[in-house]
Design brief:
The protein has helices spanning 11-21, 63-71, 83-93, 120-128, 162-165, 205-216, 227-250, 268-275; strands at residues 27-34, 37-43, 77-81, 106-112, 136-140, 148-153, 156-161, 186-190, 198-202. The chain is α/β, with parallel strands linked by helices. The strands form two sheets. Strands 2-1-3-4-8-9 form a six-stranded mixed β-sheet, sandwiched between helices. Strands 5-6-7 form a three-stranded antiparallel β-sheet. The protein is globular and about 55 Å long. The structure holds flavin-adenine dinucleotide.
């Protein structure tokens, strides 16, 4: 498969391939695509991982593949998922119903950076006027100030202004405080201005061990991030949190009382800290 099949450096696909090959996970919940529609896929053969490379910038039912893996009795599942999806996985792993016989079926979570995703049905309506959806080979969003989303198709590139794309962001993305998939072993995003590279955040011992093995065995080439890039990423992640909190407060969806459902609960002193950061 050509290098261009990967969204950026192929870090995610390399890590999942290695984890399957070395038996760290026995199946991986990934996201494929049929036309424009993202499709959950449970992969057990490391050679199949690359088939699902590339970002589908639509909200995806990836966790259906996690559920399928649990039902099929896999005990060391891996998943690649967005922050919202990994929040759900983390809640499931916390065993909120205190089931005595519960065992954690998840061995590896690779989280994607994400600012927003798109509603597939609405996107389909918008772009089917401009291109043949069945001919889409990939999609990407170049960094600012480009202001476009690009679809690679069999007959060439089609660019759509973000001003037409952004109205298709689901409302729930505006209350999501997580840009870098904090509930993960490893988080992976783009590295702006460095095509072919990813940003990688190591968040756990299993994540660190996998990255060390990947580097030792030639699956990954790593180098330290420049301090100014770390500062920029920290700022962007903090701004997403603050934006989400302000929206949650405005919509009365945080720490609600009198039996009203809250979308998020957070100690007031933490809210204050984030908003004044
Ligand atoms: C909706 C969305 C929004 C994103 N926004 C940002 C952003 O704002 N900033 C940034 O730096 N990076 C963002 N990313 C991540 C970025 O596009 C790349 O996925 C990441 O850099 C990994 O690149 P890679 O070459 O290692 O991935 P690859 O090796 O190409 O692997 C991509 C993996 O992503 C999985 N995947 C694809 N689409 C989805 C989906 N919809 N839901 C769950 N899993 C999926 C596939 O299963 C595959 O395993 C976003 C990704 C998505 C899906």
């Amino acid at each position: 498969m050509p290098q261009s099949a990967y969204q950026a450096g192929g870090t995610v696909s390399a890590l999942i391939t290695l984890a399957l090959k070395n038996g760290i996970i026995d199946a991986a919940a990934l996201t494929g695509r049929q036309g424009l529609t993202p499709i959950p896929r449970l992969v057990t053969d490391w050679q199949d991982v690359v088939k699902y490379a590339g970002s589908k910038f639509m909200a995806a039912p990836t966790l259906a593949a996690v559920n399928a893996g649990i039902q099929e009795n896999y005990t060391h599942l891996g998943t690649v998922a967005t922050p919202c999806q990994l929040t759900a996985v983390a809640q499931m792993r916390a065993n909120p119903l205190a089931i005595e016989t519960y065992t954690d079926p998840v061995a590896l979570t690779v989280g994607l950076f994400c600012n927003w995703s798109l509603d597939t049905r609405q996107l389909s309506v918008l772009i089917s006027e401009k291109l043949d959806v069945s001919a889409i080979r990939g999609m990407h969003i170049p960094p600012p100030p480009a202001g476009i989303m690009v679809f690679e198709t069999d007959s060439g590139r089609v660019q759509i202004p973000l001003s037409e794309i952004k109205p298709l962001i689901p409302e729930s993305c505006f209350i999501c405080p997580d840009m870098t998939s904090e509930f993960s072993d490893l988080s992976v995003g783009m590295f702006e201005g460095q095509p072919g590279w990813n940003t990688l955040i190591v968040r756990s011992k299993p994540g660190a061990d996998l990255v060390t093995t990947a580097s030792d065995e030639g699956y990954l080439e790593t180098k330290a991030m420049p301090p100014e890039s770390i500062a920029q990423l920290t700022r962007a992640a903090g701004e997403k949190k603050a934006r989400a909190l302000r929206t949650l407060i405005r919509r009365k969806l945080i720490n609600t009382e009198n039996g009203q459902r809250a979308a998020l609960r957070m100690p007031p002193e933490i809210i204050e800290k984030i908003l004044t950061y």
